[in-house]
Design goal:
Blueprint: E1 2-7, H1 11-15, E2 19-23, H2 30-40, E3 52-55, E4 58-59, E5 71-75
Parallel strand pairs: 1-5
Antiparallel strand pairs: 1-2, 3-4, 3-5
Amino acid sequence: MLVNVTFHSYFKDLTGCSEAAEEVPLGSTIGDVLEKLFRRFPQLVAMERSTLIAVGVEYQNRRYILKQDDEVSLFPPVQGG
């Protein structure tokens, strides 16, 4: 199944793109997609513990089971100033 991923804020700089599509088997979790993304974009690995993840408009954990055409968004931690 195809999962679309959108990168926000400086994640765009780390990956060199604002979006990516990953092909994963049915029943895959967000964690499975992240593993593929970390191999494809090794610069993201440093942010692994602080990355915020949403599917649609809801934040989800890495055990969330994805469905065909889910839209996953990755955000860095919120910074104040």
